[in-house]
Structures are given as structure tokens and as C-alpha cells.
Amino acid sequence: MSFSLLRQSLTRPISSSSRGSFGLLRFLSVKASAITFANTGIPKDVVKLVSYELNGPGPDEILVKTLASPINPADINQLEGVYPSMPAFTTELTPEQPSAIGGNEGLFEIVEVGSNIKNFKAGDWAIPRLPNFGTWRSHALVTPGDLTPINRDGITHTQAATISVNPCTAHQMLTQFVDLKKGDWFIQNGGNSGVGRAAIQLGRIWGLNSISVVRSRDNLDELIAELKDLGATQVITEEQLNSKAFKPTIKEWTQGKPIKLGFNCVGGKSATGVARQLGHGGKLVTYGGMSKQPVILPTSLFIFKDVSAHGYWLSAWTKKDPEGKGKAVEEMLNHIRSGQFKDVPVSPNVWSNASSDEAKLEVFKQALDNATKGFAGKKQVLEFTD
Ligand SMILES: NC(=O)c1ccc[n+]([C@@H]2O[C@H](COP(=O)([O-])OP(=O)(O)OC[C@H]3O[C@@H](n4cnc5c(N)ncnc54)[C@H](OP(=O)(O)O)[C@@H]3O)[C@@H](O)[C@H]2O)c1
């Protein structure tokens, strides 16, 4: 959303003349609240809850209310100040210091549309069309260009709110780097992440074989069973990935077929291990760095195996091709509708619009705290209620 729109959205007073100019459409005054940050640093220390009145919609605007919004690693990286793309910092909500609204992914319901809006109506669902929307807020005034419509049939709030980042990343990485055919193999670390689970399931739907690497834990057998249930061909631990003794087992599974594609969202030793499993000409695609360790690749992989290293960033693709992204979202939602695709396990955090600012901030901080812990197992999702 542009700076000017945000300015217009937040500061226009309700006047009796503007009320009258929208015919039967309602010009509403809504008590809204948002999670903002003016500085970057330790996430829980930099977030603030701001309440404000939102007046609208104007003739070309849409008033939306947020239904659900996850806390993804990239959202946390933005709070930490270690992400290359940031939402707009303005003084509209915080006159004392420019601040931005956090959150990049979420689901909105249209509350009211302006008199010139033809392609949305009250009750429709939509998601942000572009990154940096600022989804951690109860309401927003937007224009149609800010939204991608979502067909709400057969879809839950959480499913729609978490479809556009991780499932689309898996979709793109599986289709944009290597022309994988049925029976081909790919390998990935972070196998239990949102992206990893989506890649496993798309692999199953498209007839691909996958090896998913996870960190060892007390309930490892349970996790392996869960990922195999989603369609993982094999699930191994980081220790197995990096053990020379385990290599023949992988060869046996693949029956000597080269592993063509590797996904890395961890870095460090794990990335090296994934790259080592690739066959001649294999591609390693790095899309995250959860261990905060650099990717180090053995020279021999480049010289003797012609392995190549790549990066993927969904935000760049979304900005370049918002329509293509919209199609991928609809394709993934159809997989959910047909019962072929399970959404990520979530931990719901209820943000009641009726509760006090302190209570809302407390809910958010607890969710943030859970989202920053390793071995969390569940995606933290804010569920907004009236
Ligand atoms: N480039 C892009 O366009 C793009 C798009 C989407 C996501 N991403 C990135 O993809 C990654 C996964 O995102 P997500 O939303 O799918 O994640 P998620 O569902 O929140 O899961 C986090 C994953 O990271 C693992 N993890 C956490 N800390 C770790 C550590 N210190 N060492 C190794 N693994 C660790 C977790 O494993 P445990 O269960 O063992 O903790 C889990 O598999 C993130 O880095 C995110 O920024 C990138």
C-alpha cells in the first residue's frame, strides 16, 4: 500500500457531507488496532500496539477486516532488521516517530466497498496482492489493487491466511529450476517447515520422490510418521544426512537415480549435506537460513559434479508476476478443496477486537515468543474476532 493511501486512510475525518455522498453504502468509523514497530531489534522489545479510528471507505476504497494472519520467519526477520525488504515507515499511526505495521500474510473479509468499486463486495475474501502489506492489524482501508480475491468455498480462515507464502514457495521452487518428471527425486532440509510440508505434498501429487531432512528430537518417530503420511518418500535426520555410512542407504532408495534438486532453508552443515547428495548437474536452491550459518559448498561439487547453487525469493517473484502468484494460490487452494493438501499445523492466538490494548499486545507477544522458538512444531496464527 502506498504511503499516500495510508495517509488518506487514517486521517480523513468523517463529515456529514462525506457521509451523504455514498448513497446506500455505509461510511463507517471503525476502532482499529495494529502491531507496529518503529525500531528494529529484539522482536518482542520493538513491537507496540496502536489503536486508531479508521473512517471509510471513500468512493475508490475498500474497508477490510482481518480474519487471520500467521507469524512467519520473514516477518520476524523484518522486526530484527535483517530482511532486505521492509514495509513503509510513516508517522500516520505514531506521530512521534515513523513506524510500520508488521506481518506479510493474512486473510481479509471485505466489510464495505466505496461507490466506485465493482469487483469486490461485502463478505468477499481477499489476501494481500504484494508483500509488506502489514497484516497484523484488525482493519485496513485499501484499493482493489492491494488485494487478490480468494474463492472462500471449502476453505478455512487459516488455510487461506497461510496459502500465499509457504505453499507458493514450494510450488515455485519445484517448477522453476528443474524440469522434474514423475519418479524424479528431490531432497530438502527443514522438512517439517511450512515450505517443507508443502513441497512433500506437491511432490506426492506430482509423482515425485522426496527425501526430507529434519532435526532429531524426542518425538522423532511421530514426526517421521506425520511427514510420511503427507507423502514424504523418506525422512532422515541431519545426523544421517551428514554420515558417510548412511550414503549407501540413500543410493539404495534412489536406485542410483540422480537427485536433481535440493532445497535448503537451514544453511551450515545441513546445506553442505543436501548439496553432497545431489547428482551430476543437480541444483541446490537456498531459500532460507534458519541456522544463521553460511552456505559452504565443497569445491569438488562444482568441478566434478557440475552442481550449481541458486537462491529463491518469493517476494521478488510476487512483485514481478502478481497474476502468476494469484494462479498458484488458486491452484494450491484447489488441492486443499480436493482433499489432497493439508495445511500446516497451527497454534491459534485469538486477537479479540473487543479486548483491551494490553490484552491484544499480550496475545501477540506470546505468539511471537512461540514463533521464535526452535522445535515449535506449529505455525503461530493470529485469529481476529469481533
Ligand atoms: N525465500 C523465500 O521466498 C521464502 C519463502 C517462504 C519461507 N522462506 C524461509 O523458509 C524457511 C522456513 O519457513 P517456514 O515458514 O516454512 O518455517 P516454519 O514452518 O516456521 O518452520 C521453521 C523450520 O525451521 C527449522 N529451524 C528452526 N530453527 C532452526 C535451526 N536453528 N536450525 C535448523 N533448522 C531450524 C524448524 O525445524 P525444527 O522443528 O527442528 O525447529 C522448521 O523446520 C524460513 O527461513 C523462511 O524465511 C523463504
From TrEMBL:
Main location: mitochondrion
One GO process term, biological-process aspect: fatty acid biosynthetic process
Molecular functions (GO terms): enoyl-[acyl-carrier-protein] reductase (NADPH) activity
Keywords, alphabetical: Fatty acid biosynthesis, Fatty acid metabolism, Lipid biosynthesis, Lipid metabolism, Mitochondrion, NADP, Oxidoreductase, Transit peptide
Compartment(s): Mitochondrion
Record-linked SUPFAM superfamilies: GroES-like, NAD(P)-binding Rossmann-fold domains
Catalyzed reaction equations: a 2,3-saturated acyl-[ACP] + NADP(+) = a (2E)-enoyl-[ACP] + NADPH + H(+)
EC numbers, comma separated: 1.3.1.104
Domain Enoyl reductase (ER) as annotated: residue spans: 41-368
Entry's family note: Belongs to the zinc-containing alcohol dehydrogenase family. Quinone oxidoreductase subfamily.
Name the UniProt record assigns to this protein: enoyl-[acyl-carrier-protein] reductase
Organism for this UniProt entry: Magnusiomyces paraingens
